[in-house]
Write a structure and sequence with these properties.
single chain, 15 strands, six-stranded antiparallel β-sheet, about 375 residues, alpha+beta, 7 helices, 2 domains
Length: about 375
């Protein structure tokens, strides 16, 4: 299953996912009018109130992607039916690159993509929408930055901004209304594209208005409460190296991992909330310039993902014992060229490690590197 995240201003898109909605509780039945029901006693003001129950894992908005936006009705025809994230179920599997999906779900993001039959926006019209709740301060700051750089105030919600790049056939907008923040992006190619000239701003305004109108009548569900995790994602990966990695893998150091490019503020916030994304670069290189370099991803609180790891077609899994991990497995996929990695649940987080060079990705070396990383975490 492909999952796509559109990037602005870059045209490449990756990471498409499916969307489903968490079930809503039914209204409580009303008492029969034939019976007299005594009014409950007034609550004692000094009595502690029962806290609202934690929400379900997955999008916090009770709407499908199609209910929020119809691109054709906004003057942007040609997109396919939308796809996006959902609450996890037993039939779905996670693999390399899917940690962003786990982060989005933990943050309650509704992420939708209207494609064009391919994974690349340059082959036709594409629309992307991300919605997140309870991020007013982040939304106000980012929208203010857009406006200061010349974006147009769209007059929607509490604050809004939109801008188009006609030469690149791209338009995007961010809107904050009542604590809900959304980002929408439209991408296309071709001289006849509605985004290629003055029409683009009108199309963007119509699309953003559709979404704002649909969201105005919907309140987000309670946030999902992540289990406690011992990983401090704000601290970065630097403390995970040191002697343990040097002795097992060789000298080197961690670099910051790839940042989400572009203007999708809600998605950037979600991916930074609970995630480490780093790369280990070995100091010693072979004659061909390669070394035992690997990527490391951590999603704090995502122990729930274990049953969905390694079950995709063509993936082989071998459970391994790794000091510091509750569960761990070495996995591979592919025939002619194998891709191998390790998954682990450790200290309340999903940890994934993969060597860049397939020749380095043996089970022994992968487990050795994962053990060293977890030792560094325990010592930090």
């Amino acid at each position: 299953m492909s999952r796509t995240v559109a990037r602005f201003p870059a045209l490449a898109a990756a990471l498409l996912a499916s969307i489903a909605l968490a079930a809503c509780t039914a209204d409580a039945p009303q008492p029969s009018p034939a019976k007299s029901v005594a009014a409950p006693p007034a609550a004692d003001p000094g009595t502690a109130q029962t806290p609202e129950p934690a929400g379900a894992l997955g999008p916090r908005f009770g709407a499908s992607c199609a209910e929020l936006l119809d691109p054709a009705a906004a003057g942007f025809p040609g997109t396919s039916a939308p796809t996006g994230d959902s609450a996890p179920d037993a039939a779905e599997f996670y693999g390399p690159g899917d940690q962003s999906v786990a982060s989005r779900r933990q943050s309650g993001v509704l992420h939708c993509v209207w494609g064009n039959g391919t994974d690349e926006p340059q082959y036709g019209p594409t629309a992307v929408l991300s919605v997140i709740a309870d991020r007013s301060a982040d939304a106000q700051a980012e929208i203010g930055s857009w406006l200061s750089l010349g974006a147009t105030d769209l007059g929607l919600g509490d604050r809004s901004a939109g801008r188009c790049l006609p030469e690149l056939f791209q338009c995007s907008a961010e809107v904050e209304l009542g604590g809900t923040w959304f980002y929408v992006q439209l991408l296309d190619q071709g001289s006849d594209s509605p985004l290629g000239g003055a029409r683009g701003q009108a199309v963007l305004q119509a699309a953003a208005k559709q979404i704002a109108t649909a969201l105005a009548s919907r309140q987000p569900r309670p946030a999902w409460a992540a289990p406690a995790s011992g990983w401090d994602v704000a601290a970065g990966c630097g403390d995970l190296g040191g002697a343990a990695l040097d002795s097992r893998i060789g000298a080197g150091g961690f670099l910051a991992g790839p940042e989400l490019e572009g203007d999708d503020g809600p998605l950037r916030i979600a991916l930074r909330t609970d995630r480490l994304d780093c790369a280990w670069t070995a100091a010693s290189k072979r004659a061909d310039g390669t070394g035992p370099d690997f990527s490391l991803g951590v999603v704090a609180g995502a122990g729930w993902v274990w049953p969905s790891l390694g079950g995709a077609s063509g993936v082989t899994s071998t459970e391994v014992a790794v000091e510091g991990a509750d569960r761990a497995a070495f996995r591979c996929s592919g025939d002619a060229v194998k891709t191998c990695w390790a998954d682990a649940i450790a200290d309340g987080a999903w940890v994934q490690l993969a060597f860049r060079n397939p020749a380095d990705a043996t089970q022994d070396d992968t487990v050795r590197a994962l053990t060293a990383v977890l030792a560094g975490h325990a010592a930090s």
